[in-house]
């Protein structure tokens, strides 16, 4: 006579399930903050790179076309006929500025438009500056009648002056030098000591 053994049940018991959940929660507890920091760092780097690229575009177009080119803040950057908002637009445009007045006039061709930085990234500039950068036909920065041009740009987010590792700041500082070439600073001491005031 054959002895029948009850079929073995597959699966996990309660203790195994609890250990698995504890380990998973520990991994998530460590991983989620790191991933959030990674995303914030990427957003900040992208915002700084986009702005530097537009500055290079304005400078290159000025030399190529042998005419003044202006990059200015714009509130209606996505419109068919965008305009400068030197008091506080958060998007920006690059345009051929034939009369070098930091204003889009009839006949001024818009070369590039750009949306504001990602949500949560704040942009600040020199205290007395109107929100524009202008390059002459020689590629050097120049001032329009609108007032002093931007020479320093600061990008900050909700992390403030946090060190993201290795002395690298959460924010960025972009400086437009006398030759018109933008320089991006990311070390915490440099970003916090910039002329705009730090994050």
Question: In words, what does this structure look like?
Answer:
This protein is an alpha+beta fold and 199 residues long. The chain has one domain (15-192): 3-Layer(bab) Sandwich (minor pseudopilin epsh fold). Helices cover 29% and strands 24% of the residues. The strands form 2 sheets. A 5-stranded antiparallel sheet has the order 3-2-1-5-6, covered by helices on one side. A 4-stranded antiparallel sheet has the order 4-7-8-9. It starts with 13 loop residues before the first helix and ends in a 7-residue tail after the last helix. 29% of the residues are buried. The model has no long low-confidence stretch (mean pLDDT 89).
Q: How do the strands and helices of this protein lay out in sequence?
A:
Elements: H1 14-65, E1 69-74, E2 91-96, E3 110-114, E4 122-125, E5 132-135, E6 141-142, E7 152-156, E8 168-176, E9 182-187, H2 188-192
Antiparallel strand pairs: 1-2, 1-5, 2-3, 4-7, 5-6, 7-8, 8-9
Short description:
The chain has one domain: minor pseudopilin epsh fold (3-Layer(bab) Sandwich).
Major sheet: arrangement of strands: 3-2-1-5-6
The helix/strand series, from N terminus to C terminus, equals HEEEEEEEEEH
Helical fraction equals 25-40%
The Rg value, from CA coordinates, equals 26 Å
In CATH, the topology is named minor pseudopilin epsh fold
Shape: elongated
Count of β-strands: 9
Point out poorly predicted stretches. Answer: none
Mean pLDDT: 89
Distance between the termini: 84 Å
For the biggest sheet, the summary is: 5 strands, antiparallel
CATH superfamily: minor pseudopilin epsh domain
Total helices: the number is 2
Structural class, please? Answer: alpha+beta
Strand content: 15-25%
């Amino acid at each position: 006579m054959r002895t029948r053994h009850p079929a073995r049940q597959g699966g996990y018991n309660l203790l195994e399930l609890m250990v698995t959940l504890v380990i998973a929660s520990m991994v998530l507890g460590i991983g989620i903050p790191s991933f959030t920091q990674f995303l914030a760092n990427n957003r900040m780097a992208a915002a700084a790179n986009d702005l530097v690229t537009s500055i290079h575009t304005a400078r290159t177009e000025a030399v190529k076309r042998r005419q003044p080119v202006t990059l200015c803040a714009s509130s209606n950057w996505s419109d068919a006929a965008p305009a400068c908002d030197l008091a506080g637009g958060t998007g920006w445009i690059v345009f051929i500025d034939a009369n070098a007045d930091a204003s889009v006039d009839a006949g001024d061709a818009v070369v590039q438009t750009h949306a504001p930085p990602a949500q949560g990234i704040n942009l600040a500039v020199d205290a007395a500056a109107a929100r524009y950068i202008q390059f002459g036909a020689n590629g050097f920065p120049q001032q329009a009648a609108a007032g002093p041009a931007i020479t320093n740009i600061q990008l900050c987010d909700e992390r403030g002056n946090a060190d993201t590792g290795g002395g690298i700041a959460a924010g960025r500082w972009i400086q437009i030098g006398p030759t018109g070439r933008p320089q991006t600073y990311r070390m915490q001491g440099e970003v916090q000591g910039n002329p705009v005031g730090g994050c």
